[in-house]
Specification:
188 residues; alpha/beta; Leucine-rich repeat, LRR (right-handed beta-alpha superhelix); seven-stranded mixed beta sheet; globular
Length: 188
């Protein structure tokens, strides 16, 4: 019986992974010159850029493991040139609302980690164009009910984490009505 559960868990993980990357659009192409330069700059600043798999050129980008320097809005500038990014992890960085201008046109983005950043309601307005976004983590930010209104058009959003924010029950209820399939986790 435990073997069957393990097989089922593996199958579910595989199905979730396939669904995640099918929403980001068609197969990603090889990087152009601008994208290659952007990747080099991100790595120079201590960020990580990885292709999802050998046969999937979509990118997983992370600044959350940078230890020897602060990651600020300036570090996000090269992100504008990435055309294949599906995951972005900015957890625990010094990124502010102003830095999100660099990702506002990232229509391939599926997962976005903004927990423990300096993001506020104003920053969430920059996320309106992320039409394929399915996962958003805002844990430990200054986001309020007013900011949640900017997320109402993100119809593919499936999971939203709001622990330790300034969001109220009323704000959650309003967003839930706009996006009935969204799972909102408040940690309360």
């Amino acid at each position: 019986m435990p073997e069957r559960n393990l097989i089922l868990a593996g199958a579910m993980l595989l199905m979730n992974s396939l669904a995640l990357f099918s929403t980001a659009g068609a197969e990603a192409e090889e990087p152009n010159a601008a994208e290659q330069q952007a990747i080099a700059k991100i790595r120079e600043m201590g960020g990580q850029v990885l292709e999802i798999a050998q046969n999937d050129k979509h990118l997983d980008v992370g600044f959350h493991l940078v230890q020897d320097k602060k990651v600020t809005d300036e570090a996000l500038t090269p992100l504008k040139d990435l055309t294949r990014m599906v995951n972005l992890n900015l957890r625990g960085t010094e990124v502010t609302d102003a830095g999100l201008v660099n990702i506002e046109k990232q229509t391939t983005l599926v997962r976005l980690h903004l927990e423990k950043t300096k993001i506020t309601d104003a920053g969430l307005e920059r996320l309106k164009g992320l039409v394929n976004l399915e996962y958003l983590n805002l844990y430990g930010t200054e986001v309020t009910d007013a900011g949640l209104a900017h997320l109402e058009g993100l119809t593919k959003l499936k999971s939203l984490y709001l622990w330790q924010t300034k969001v109220t029950d009323a704000g959650v209820e309003k967003l839930q009505k706009a996006l009935p399939n969204l799972k909102i986790i408040r940690g309360v």
